[in-house]
Amino acid sequence: MNSSEKKSLQISACKIRLGAVEGVYHAKSGHPGGSLSAADLYAYLYFQELNIDPENPKWADRDRFVLSKGHCCPGLYAALAERGYFSADELQKLRHIGAMLQGHPDMKGTPGIDMSTGSLGQGISAACGIAKAGKMDGKAYRVYAMLGDGEIEEGQVWEAAMFAAHHKLDNLCLIVDSNGLQIDGPVAEVAGPEPIDEKFRAFGFDVQTIDGNNFDDIERAFVHAKTVQGKPSVIIAKTVKGKGVSYMENQVGWHGKAPNAEQYEQAMQELKTALAGLEAE
């Protein structure tokens, strides 16, 4: 990508972070840490990678995205709003009774959501089924699924991985948001899934490990994944939990809580300053 395209993606990622913080603050609950770590990945997916049409969310030939780590939907919702699936005003209604945006993705009530998720480990299985259906129907669409590094402690993830490799689902691309922290503490201390790359390779995947907060790395990985034939792909994206908000970065306590009014103001000021800097370049 050229410098203009990269700046545009950086601006989109910053706006996604702003939207995620906005949503969690007004909900008074939610998961900011993993939403912020994945914001650059959301930006690349929704503004560069996915073949989608916000005006026709159920377009049969669209690419599909499954957020297997469904609790990190504040960032996904912000990306969908930025992409034009619904008004950004909806973000302030996050988790409110009767609102469009619930605490986990709901494919029946939210435009742009391809699979309802939330119970960890299950989203990847759904993504495998969607990819297999695409193969059976002779469709050209691709399927993307994002997991957390804590989530891959779930056994169902590896059952799905075996399925994907056995059926040669080269239309499937997994993204592991590897930010090193989960609700109970450092991932390495809870159930230590490393070496993640060697595990997926042993399960028959094409494997790439990247800096998931670097757009040059992100672009190279997704471009390569589309060239892989005969096997599924996984991009292990090393990220910073809480990326973009100084007091949230690498702090496990921000896995699943909302900022208070003072913390909200600080977070928004930091992100707005970053956004202004990008737009002024």
Can you give a write-up of this model?
The protein has 281 residues and is an alpha/beta fold. The chain has a single domain, classed as Rossmann fold (3-Layer(aba) Sandwich). The protein is 43% helix and 12% strand. The chain contains ten helices and seven strands. The strands form two sheets. It has a five-stranded parallel beta sheet, with helices on both faces. The protein has a two-stranded antiparallel sheet with strand order 4-5. Strand 2, helix 6 and strand 3 (172-178) form a beta-alpha-beta unit. Helix 3 crosses helix 9. The radius of gyration is 17 Å and the shape is globular. The two termini are 17 Å apart. 50% of the residues are buried.
Please describe the topology of this protein.
Blueprint: H1 3-27, H2 32-37, H3 39-49, E1 64-67, H4 73-83, H5 122-136, E2 143-148, H6 155-166, E3 172-178, E4 181-182, E5 185-186, H7 187-190, H8 196-202, E6 206-211, H9 215-225, E7 233-238, H10 261-280
Parallel strand pairs: 1-2, 2-3, 3-7, 6-7
Antiparallel strand pairs: 4-5
Protein name: Transketolase
GO molecular function, one term: metal ion binding
InterPro entries: THDP-binding, Transketolase_CS, Transketolase_N
